[in-house]
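Let's study a protein:

===
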Amino acid sequence: MRSLREIFQQFPAVRERGLDASEVQTSLQQFGSNRLTPLPREPLWKKFLEKFDEPIIIILLVASLLKIVVDIFKIEGSGPTYGGGSLGLIVLSLVLAYGLNGNQWIPSILFALAIVLVLFSAILGHPSIEGIAVMVAVVLATGVSFFSEYKSDREFEALNQSKDAAPVKVIRGGEVQVIPLDEVVVGDWIQLEMGDEVPADGRLIKATELMIDQSLLTGESEPVAKKVRPEDDTSEGPEQPGCVYRGTQVVDGMGAMIATEVGDATMIGQIAKRLSGDSDDDEAPATEGETEEQRIKRKLTISKELTPLQLKLVHLAGQISRVGYIAAIAIFLALLTEGILQGQISFDKLQNDTLSVVSKILDYFVVMVIIIVVAVPEGLPMSVTVS
């Protein structure tokens, strides 16, 4: 961060009247504008594939795949049983791998495999109607969720872009002017009042009981007192009393600063540049353990924090879900027990007529999936948001 002496040497009249029009242009050409380079967007195809990484969608995909595999078994002359068994093993292996390491690409692979099997069964002349129906449900669910989020993302981006036009009070040519935040340049005399967001990095030239919230940079919730330091002070950092940084908040008092760094040269801008290569979308709520990079990323990207009502709905949906899962498993076990007692499922029959037994168990599994899908309100928070 430049010292006040460096700024005053380059723009001698700043301390009396601020920058004039010609000095503003000189500063803009030499040091650049106060715009931050936006973080890269996540590709739309990746956002769409992430929609398959939902518990209900995965359950539907597994049910669809298993049903299609069994239906292919039933097609006379479709090939050896070994091939269908291999498909079943592939599906179960993918589900097991997802359960063990949570790889986000496995649900997408399951979806692609389901499409291939549906086409294969259609080519054989016996398309799996139930499998296709489940796939249509999956496509509708993921499509609606994707387009709803896409629309809200664009609206939030437009809202976030308006932050660059936030008004800032500066002294230029001896007069107080209100300019957009992105027009602040190095050397600008900026007035700070309670409630203002610091528009650039700089050093104080006036301070009256000035308190700054620096939690964005330091993670500390308590505001810190700031005061004027000598012109030749070269110390820098949020802990220094004479330094203020872009993105921090004035919570009490008033003061004035000289902008010494703008745009990507600010501390928040440098962190944003480091994050440009980070493709992980961190949407976790703020915590005391958050890193500086995570806090900056949350500030510069779309805000998706849940409201108190949505948090309560998520909790309610979780409670209902647990009841739904327990009821579904209980019904599956009851149907399985009934099949065993009636002789439809037995070890001897499994050896002699494997397909019949597997098909029967799959029917019970489909019933369990139906109960889970109906009982678990995964879309409750989103439905309230859309409403």
In short: The chain is about 55% helix and 10% strand. The first strand starts at residue 167 and ends at 172. Residues 76-86, 278-288 have pLDDT under 50 and may be disordered.
